[in-house]
Task: inverse folding
């Protein structure tokens, strides 16, 4: 291999600093067996992107990074969308491919399992994660329900009304009760907020029912998940990996991706400012990140950008994992200082355009043709540029990634179930809590109104034959009165009257011819 390439790589990734090892340099079709390429731990909170076509090795890159962060005492959150990340809890299994990859990269491979807490949105595969409707907020909930801007604005108005009236929105039953109340007897109370159409309320209620039928009803409620549980360190000093198992909600990607955004936003609002640290307090891997931005409103994107830009000072690093850099909006992509770009494929004109756009975002290098390299990378290889300890992007290098030390296949169902059943965290969040909230408060208000109405009605005396003005009620009409009031009588009377009036006033004289 060209010695100038190795010298440049060693200068860009100096040894001796706390870092995550990524792999060995590849150039001219050859791999130098020295795991030179690293990502400095102090730079992990500058966020990053792991991208590449399907099957190029993104998940294994996520896995090897999470392992080394845990070993360095950094808690990690990652989403297991396809059910193939749970193996981080068990030691890896030696195989010819693992041995070959370790030899090619010069990496000393040791099978190791890591401390893991499994989480679940349904409670089926880990600790039941819950959030109250109020803390989730109208912006994120509108994203989950797939609302348009008009419907989202109505939802925001309902949240404002509930806050002003002290109505706690803990679960969907609370939100449903408020919507039904405001579209019925409480409609007049919305005058100062602008009002809402019953058709919009119908859309909101139908979308909520649909989400509940998909099992999402268990997610909204109490006890709300304490995000401090994501910051745990095991007794041996290793960071705990919190793995959100999502294989049972794969058909609800908007819910899972938006829930992870809720966690980030809550972390941003609750964690104290810490500035630059020797290592991050938490690293968050946002898998299938494109689902977060599909159909997102401008307000939602603005919130994601704000969190990505400012959460760095809270000691939290965020890595978006997706197929193409174009899946992430440009304003957010600009916040990601570390790039691990696996192979991109250009089978269509749109793919070719995306490839050229991705190539232009890398720093200049005299060692690689960026566009060509991106299309010729093999499985488990990536083009890498990271921030050095001074915050300067390194020039990109093609890298053959080291093998993960934990199991690269998922845990067997029995293994996963055993770990879930033995988890204290699972037991802590297993039982839901239903305290007084908007539904009970509105029901109590309706019951009180009904009681008062009943008391008032019971105090009204039975009406006597005298009317309220003291006049006697009329006697039933006699037969003569009924006859005189009949239509025939009125007609006869009219004819007779006109005849008498004509006789008295004189008839009209005829014209002389």
Result:
């Amino acid at each position: 291999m060209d010695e100038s390439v190795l010298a440049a790589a060693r200068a860009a990734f100096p040894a001796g600093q706390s870092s995550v090892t990524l792999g060995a340099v590849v150039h001219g079709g050859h791999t130098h067996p020295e795991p030179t390429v690293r990502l400095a731990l102090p730079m992990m909170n500058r966020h990053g992107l792991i991208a590449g076509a399907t099957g190029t090795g993104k998940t294994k890159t996520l896995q090897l990074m999470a392992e080394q962060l845990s070993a360095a005492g950094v808690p990690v959150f990652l989403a297991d969308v396809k059910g193939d990340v749970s193996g981080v809890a068990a030691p890896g299994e030696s195989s010819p491919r693992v041995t070959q990859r370790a030899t090619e990269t010069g990496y000393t491979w040791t099978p190791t399992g890591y401390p893991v807490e499994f989480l679940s949105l349904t409670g089926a595969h880990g600790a039941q994660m819950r959030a109250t409707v109020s803390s989730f907020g109208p912006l994120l909930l509108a994203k989950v329900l797939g609302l348009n801007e008009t419907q989202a604005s109505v939802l925001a108005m309902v949240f404002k009304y509930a806050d002003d009236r002290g109505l706690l929105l803990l679960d969907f039953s609370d939100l449903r009760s408020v919507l039904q109340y405001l579209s019925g007897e409480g409609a007049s109370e919305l005058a100062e907020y602008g009002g809402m159409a019953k058709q919009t309320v119908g859309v909101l209620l139908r979308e909520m029912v649909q989400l509940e039928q998909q099992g999402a009803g268990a997610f909204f409620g109490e006890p709300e998940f304490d995000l401090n549980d994501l910051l745990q360190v095991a007794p041996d000093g290793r960071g705990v990996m919190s793995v959100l198992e999502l294989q049972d909600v794969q058909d609800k990607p908007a819910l899972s991706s938006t829930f992870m955004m809720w966690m980030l936003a809550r972390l941003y609002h609750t964690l104290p400012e810490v500035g630059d640290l020797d290592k991050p307090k938490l690293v968050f891997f946002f898998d299938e990140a494109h689902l977060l931005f599909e159909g997102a409103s401008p307000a939602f994107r603005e919130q994601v950008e704000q969190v990505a830009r400012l959460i760095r000072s809270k000691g939290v690093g965020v890595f978006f994992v997706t197929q193409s850099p174009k899946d992430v909006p440009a304003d957010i992509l600009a916040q990601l200082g570390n790039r691990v770009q696996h192979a991109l494929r250009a089978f269509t004109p749109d793919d070719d355009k995306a490839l050229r756009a991705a190539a232009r975002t890398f720093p200049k290098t005299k060692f690689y043709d960026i566009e060509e390299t991106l299309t010729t990378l093999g499985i488990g290889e990536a083009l890498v540029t990271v921030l050095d300890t001074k915050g300067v992007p390194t020039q990109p290098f093609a890298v053959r990634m080291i093998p993960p030390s934990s199991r690269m296949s998922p845990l067997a169902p029995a293994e996963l179930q055993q770990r879930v059943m033995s988890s204290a965290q699972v037991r802590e969040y297993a039982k839901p809590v239903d305290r007084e909230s908007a539904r009970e408060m509105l029901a109590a208000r309706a019951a009180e109104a009904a009681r008062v109405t009943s008391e008032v009605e019971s105090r009204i005396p039975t009406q006597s034959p005298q009317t309220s003005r003291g006049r006697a009620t009329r006697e039933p009409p006699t037969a003569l009165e009924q006859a005189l009031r009949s239509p025939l009588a009125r007609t006869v009377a009219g004819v007779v009257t006109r005849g008498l009036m004509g006789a008295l006033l004189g008839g009209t004289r005829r014209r002389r011819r």
